[in-house]
């Protein structure tokens, strides 16, 4: 199996090393793991692509490349430049430092890479490590992902649906904020919503008198509804949420058609 890995925390992020180990386990001794990751951190860029300017790409080592662009740019670079003659069988994105559950999903560059992969017709899985007081101070805060990541990916490859509809599915995986030995298993979930968590801007004045705005997130351990991603993570489960890039609210289409007649 040939696997392309990327992330949004940057080419030197510790989570990318964890993902490389996961990918090598999944690929097996006869497989290949290729890295095309952002040269600099790209957290929060979503599915952004560098449509109005070129992206510089450099080879750092065997099968290892850095691109001055977003995670989605890296996927495109991997598919149409680095691996254009030998396309990957799978794209893995992460392991993100922090959760990409609930509303975080909509901002995540980790997810953006998988959206692009799915749009390109390649099986894609995003992996993120929830942080909290029970794992943030561990020698390896990514312990849950490191220990359970390969088995989770293998389970999805063997058991999950990978249809070839126009908007191919991809999977959003979040590992709970606990040591690996306390993980209770995997749970199929929907995307949650933290009622009291919103991004906001805080103003600061620089020593030169200029005003700057810092974007700040909200509490990450707010409960979400039962059966949703963040709720499962806080209960000790690995959440697995099937997703598509189609943003249509199908439940509302008929009502809107009736209203417009």
Kindly estimate the percentage of residues that lie in beta strands according to DSSP.
Answer: 15-25%
User: Major sheet, described briefly?
Assistant: 9 strands, mixed
User: Total helix count?
Assistant: 7
| Structural class by helix and strand composition | alpha/beta
Percent helix range: 25-40%
Overall mean pLDDT score? 97
Give the number of domains: 1
CATH superfamily: Survival protein SurE-like phosphatase/nucleotidase
Topology pattern, helix = H, strand = E:
EHEEEHEHHEHEEEEHEH
Computed Rg = 19 Å
Instruction: Give the strand tally.
Output: 11
Distance between the termini: 52 Å
Broad shape: globular
Arrangement of strands in the largest sheet: 3-4-2-1-5-6-7-11-8
CATH topology: Stationary-phase Survival Protein Sure Homolog, Chain: A
CATH class: Alpha Beta
Poorly predicted parts: none
- Architecture in CATH? 3-Layer(aba) Sandwich
Structural account:
This protein has a 9-stranded mixed beta sheet, with helices on both faces. It has helices spanning about 15-25, 70-80, 105, 110-120, 145-160, 230-235, 250-260; strands at about 1-5, 30-40, 55-60, 65, 90-95, 125-130, 170-175, 185-190, 200-205, 210-215, 240-245. It is built from 7 helices and 11 strands. The mean pLDDT is about 95. Strand 1, helix 1 (about 15-25) and strand 2 form a beta-alpha-beta unit. The protein is of the alpha/beta class and about 260 residues long. The protein has a single domain (about 1-195, about 220-260), classed as 3-Layer(aba) Sandwich (Stationary-phase Survival Protein Sure Homolog, Chain: A). The N and C termini lie far apart (about 50 Å). Helix content is about 30%, strand content about 25%.
């Amino acid at each position: 199996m040939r696997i392309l890995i990327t992330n949004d925390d940057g080419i030197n992020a510790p989570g990318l090393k964890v993902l490389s180990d996961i990918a090598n386990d999944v690929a097996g001794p006869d497989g290949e793991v290729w890295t095309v990751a952002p040269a600099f951190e790209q957290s929060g860029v979503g599915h952004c692509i560098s449509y109005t300017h070129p992206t510089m790409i450099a080879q750092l080592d065997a099968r290892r490349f850095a691109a001055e662009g977003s995670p989605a740019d890296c996927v495109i670079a991997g598919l149409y430049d680095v691996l254009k003659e030998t396309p990957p069988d799978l794209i893995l994105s992460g392991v993100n430092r922090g959760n990409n559950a609930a509303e975080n999903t909509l901002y995540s560059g980790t997810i953006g890479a998988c959206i692009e992969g799915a749009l390109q017709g390649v099986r894609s899985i995003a992996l993120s490590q929830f942080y909290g007081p029970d794992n943030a101070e561990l020698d390896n805060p990514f312990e849950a992902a490191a220990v359970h990541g390969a088995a989770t990916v293998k389970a999805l490859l063997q058991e999950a649906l990978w249809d070839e509809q126009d908007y191919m599915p991809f999977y959003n995986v979040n590992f709970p904020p606990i040591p690996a030995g306390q993980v209770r298993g995997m749970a199929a979930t929907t995307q949650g919503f933290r009622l009291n968590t919103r991004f906001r801007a805080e103003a600061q004045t620089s020593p030169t008198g200029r005003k700057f705005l810092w974007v700040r997130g909200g509490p990450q351990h707010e409960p979400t509804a039962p059966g949703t991603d963040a709720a499962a993570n806080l209960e000790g489960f690995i959440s697995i949420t099937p997703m598509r890039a189609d943003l249509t609210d199908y439940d509302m289409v008929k009502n809107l058609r009736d209203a417009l007649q």
